[in-house]
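Long-time lurker. I teach an intro course on protein structure, and each term I like to show students one example going from raw sequence to a predicted 3D structure in token notation. This year I'd like something fresh instead of my usual example. Would anyone be willing to generate the tokens for the chain below so I can use it in lecture? Attribution to the forum is fine with me.
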Amino acid sequence: MRVMPTVLLTSVLSLPAAAATGASADGPTEAEQRFAEHTAQLAEQADGEQAQVVVGSDGYLFFAPELRHLGLGRFWGERAIEVSRARNPDWADPLPAIVDFHEQAQRAGVELIFVPIPAKATIYPDKLPDAPSSDEPARLDPAHRAFLDALRGHGVTVIDLTADFLAHRAATDDAEAQRLYCKQDTHFSPRGAELAADRLATLIAAHGWLDDDEPGRAYRTRELELTIDGDLRQMLGDPDLPRETLRANQVIDHATNAPPEPDRDSPVLLLADSHGLAFHAGGDMHASGAGLVDHLAARLGLPLDLIAVRGSGATPSRLQLLRRRDELAGKRVVIWCLSVREYTQGDGWRRVPVVPERPDDAPR
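-- Reply from a regular --
Happy to contribute to a lecture. Here you go:
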């Protein structure tokens, strides 16, 4: 097998407890309730100050719209219209759009893997300003867990990275190795991208369709020391704040002695928001060859196809896919990756007819 994984704003105070967190009828835990209240209050304060960035401890910066999302609780079904910032109420609920795209992929004989990227504050709640005291970071996102369960109930394959990220953080005392998110940027770190690639590679390998007899593409890695000008640092507008430095493993294709290039003919498509560009696209995306698409290519032994957009990965990414007019021909897997804040803070979730229904429903 080619796969070579390396390692494994509505204030919540105005809502009923269970509705406010997406929790069960028993209500949220005390820690979950404190976290929801705290993120909602931080977002409300940022709104009042017309600020996009919340300054935390140990150099961590947080994106105010992401904190706003974490304070909303349940965000699908009847509550979607109440909490979504979509301009069209018909686009407020993410659940029907995701299930619809899953069904379209099925018609094409393709598996959809939905991979929401956890909010930074969910993994680093202790880095928030005036964070509620806790012995150690615990899982505090009951609404997200319930939403992924709802997707699974409709047959959607989902990867829940929150548990993986929290477990990784708890398993090491090395602060650099723990850093799964950039401190001064909205995106995950190169290490976070690698962990996501590990999880995806393991899942794809389990399907067994990668050809054991065909040699995989050969890749190697080299370590980079990066100094980045993160988007949150830029939004903050503090010229005296030193830029963030971090390490990355850059993937190199042995055949070209350069980072991997996306391949339109690949059987694996990564459909993403800017998490598909971070540390891959170079320029203001900080580096090339060290992003999710690069590390997954190295683990699978084949280049990936890539559609990644700046901004919302909810509808615009699928619109770009629609413009290809190929109805997912030649694909086996589509990985749909985007930030959890897109559930409520983007411009909504349209149904996009990438694979339209036809009288003959046989897979293409």
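Some talking points for your students: Residues 1-25 have pLDDT under 50 and may be disordered. The CA atoms of residues 217 and 301 lie 5 Å apart.
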